[in-house]
């Protein structure tokens, strides 16, 4: 275990103090298989951190570790240290409170078997919001932000799982936002969403940055380029580098493999 | 266009053989199914023809008289309802709670697997063995005597594995992705169970319970030594009374009362089987109703 602040790919040593999340020497295994090896990385406040890398490079595994999902994924083991607002997440007693501050959106949308309204009202209800008007307001705001409101405002009482794939994905985003998270984890959120809506959601993400930190895992290198403040490149469990997105995309890289991947010359 | 389409779909020798096999398999499987249904149809027809004339309002609402060779079946009917209801009160909460624990909380380790295996095996224990257990445990050890309580608890123990297995299966049928989505939002296990898992497993759970009812009402051996009486002229007043029961009554008048009219056992059997079928019909209707509102 590395003592002290980890060297961050972004190069700012002040990160250790100002960062939302600091990850030190994180190793993730599934049985014998190592999915992520010795990752040091931090997530700053109010930034969008893009993560790119080919299939199987450990991007999703990283997001899982942030939310302590390893507790319900058989065989997944996490080593190393992750602090969230300076607190070691392993030591957090109330894992529910931790998870409720982290919104996650996975590539395959999961519309819960509830109405559209209840899908979005569930998290507020769980944290004790009872008043109908307050719930109505949260539901509308979150659905608007997820660019779904116009399509579902007349069918809030129909089942969320009956929406189209792309609509369900936006419902999942609305649900994540309804948690009012400090940290939003997006894993390839746009694979089920059409390009026009994707652009609308991307605009929302740029706004949301003012309220939270966002980790954006994406297979679309151009999406990282459009949105991310910094971009991390993972390759088969190795964290190759993290740099300002503008630097990386203008060819200023520390490792030539990053350049190759961005240019699509890979494998 | 049609000219080119015709040769495209003309069968080769291979797939024409496949089609013959397909036809043969379909016919064979259909025949087997018909064979399966046949006994059921015959039994039902026999019961209706032979026992139908016996059935009347009076038959259902009066007591047996003349050494059970005449009169009705009221005490047996009421007794069966008592037995089933008390058995349900005992087995459903325990069974559902155990199934929720096994499905939602228990870690996946050798102990859990051993328990699951034990439950399945328990479902295969012959009912006469349960009867002896009931005598030893409830009648003698707990001193309930031969009573509705002892008989119902015996029935409960016997059907518990069925309730647990069917409940666990309906819980498992709720996709895991729903649970994970909830946990990721910071919901506790119980919040997830209460808001997502149970509401969506309810139809399956209730179906299991209704099937338990139909099984319980037909069992004879477990109640014979624990609480069901050969003949009682009065209705049970509480759980510590003995009672008559439909299944035992049928056994008694068919084998122990030589001068009972021949149609009488058929009539009793018809009532018993109608009860069971009505329960099953209820469960099927419920299932259809809920499937209409299936949520994923
Ligand atoms: N539940 C699991 N059990 C076993 N191995 C897993 C599991 N989840 C992921 N892995 C393995 O861990 C490695 C990293 O997987 P991960 O899902 O993190 O990759 P990824 O970067 O998200 O890939 P993709 O871009 O395809 O989503 C892969 O080799 C994968 O096979
Ligand atoms: Mg992934």
Question: Any overview of this molecule?
Answer:
The complex is a heterodimer of chains A (267) and B (296). By secondary structure, chain A is of the alpha/beta class. Helix content of chain A is 35%, strand content 24%. Chain A has helices at 15-18, 59-66, 95-100, 116-126, 132-145, 149-152, 165-178, 195-208, 221-227, 245-249, 256-262; strands at 21-30, 33-43, 48-52, 76-84, 87-88, 102-105, 183-187, 213-217, 230-235, 238-244. Chain A is globular and about 55 Å long. Mean pLDDT of chain A is 89; it is low at 1-13. Chain B has 296 residues and is mainly α. Chain B has one domain: MetI-like fold (Orthogonal Bundle), CATH 1.10.3720.10. In chain B, strands 1-2 form a two-stranded antiparallel ribbon. The longest helix of chain B has 39 residues, at 13-51. Classes of the chains: A alpha/beta (267), B mainly alpha (296). Chain A binds chain B through residues 67, 69, 72, 74, 96-104, 108, 110-114, 122-123, 126-127, 159, 161, 172, 175-176, 179, and chain B through 108, 174, 177-188, 191, 195-196, 199-200, 295-296. The site of magnesium ion has 3 residues of chain A, from helix 2.
């Amino acid at each position: 275990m590395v003592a002290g602040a980890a060297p961050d790919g972004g190069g700012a040593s002040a990160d250790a103090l100002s960062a939302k999340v600091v990850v030190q020497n994180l190793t993730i295994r599934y049985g014998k298989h190592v999915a992520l090896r010795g990752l040091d990385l931090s997530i700053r406040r109010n930034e969008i951190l893009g993560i790119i890398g080919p299939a199987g490079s450990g991007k999703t595994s990283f997001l899982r570790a942030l939310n302590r999902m390893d507790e319900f994924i058989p065989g997944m083991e996490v080593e190393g240290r992750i602090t969230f607002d300076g607190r070691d997440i392993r030591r957090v007693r109330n894992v529910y409170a931790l998870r409720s501050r982290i919104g996650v959106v996975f590539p395959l949308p999961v519309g819960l078997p509830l109405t559209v309204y209840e899908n979005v009202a569930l998290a507020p209800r769980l944290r004790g919001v009872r008043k109908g008007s307050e719930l109505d307001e949260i539901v509308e705001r979150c659905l608007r932000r997820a660019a779904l409101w116009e399509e579902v405002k007349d069918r809030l009482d129909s089942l969320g799982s009956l929406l189209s794939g792309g609509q369900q994905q936006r419902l999942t985003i609305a649900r994540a936002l309804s948690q009012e998270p400090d940290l939003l984890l997006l894993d390839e959120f746009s694979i089920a969403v059409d390009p026009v809506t994707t652009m609308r959601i991307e605009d929302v993400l740029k706004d949301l940055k003012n309220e939270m930190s966002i980790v954006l895992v994406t297979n679309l290198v151009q999406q990282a380029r459009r949105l991310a403040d910094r971009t991390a490149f993972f390759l088969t469990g190795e964290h190759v580098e993290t740099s300002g997105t503008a630097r990386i995309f203008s060819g200023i890289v520390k490792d030539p493999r990053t350049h190759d991947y961005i240019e699509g010359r890979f494998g | 266009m049609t000219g080119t389409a015709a040769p495209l779909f003309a069968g080769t020798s291979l797939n024409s053989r496949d089609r013959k096999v397909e036809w043969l398999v379909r016919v064979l499987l259909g025949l087997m199914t018909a064979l399966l249904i046949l006994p059921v149809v015959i039994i039902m027809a026999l019961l209706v023809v032979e026992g139908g004339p016996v059935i009347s309002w009076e038959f259902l609402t009066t007591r047996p008289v003349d050494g059970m060779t005449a009169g009705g079946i009221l005490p047996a009917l009421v007794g069966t309802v008592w037995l089933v209801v008390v058995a349900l009160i005992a087995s459903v909460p325990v069974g559902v709670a155990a199934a929720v624990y096994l499905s939602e909380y228990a870690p996946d380790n050798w102990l859990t697997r051993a328990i699951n295996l034990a439950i399945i095996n328990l479902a295969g224990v012959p009912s006469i063995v349960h009867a002896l257990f009931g005598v030893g445990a409830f009648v003698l050890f707990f001193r309930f005597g031969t009573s509705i309580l002892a008989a119902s608890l015996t029935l409960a123990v016997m059907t518990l594995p069925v309730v647990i297995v069917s409940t666990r299966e309906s819980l498992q049928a709720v996709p895991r992705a729903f649970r994970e989505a909830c946990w990721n939002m910071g919901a506790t296990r119980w919040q997830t169970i209460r808001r997502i898992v149970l509401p969506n497993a309810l139809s399956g759970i209730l179906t299991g319970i209704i099937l338990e009812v139909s099984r319980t009402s037909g069992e004879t051996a477990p109640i014979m030594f624990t609480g069901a009486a050969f003949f009682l002229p009065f209705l049970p007043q509480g759980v510590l009374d003995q009672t008559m029961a439909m299944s035992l009554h049928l056994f008694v008048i068919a084998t122990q009362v030589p001068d009972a009219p021949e149609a009488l056992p058929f009539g009793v059997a018809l009532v018993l089987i109608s009860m069971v079928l009505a329960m099953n019909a209820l469960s099927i209707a419920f299932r259809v109703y809920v499937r209409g509102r299936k949520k994923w």
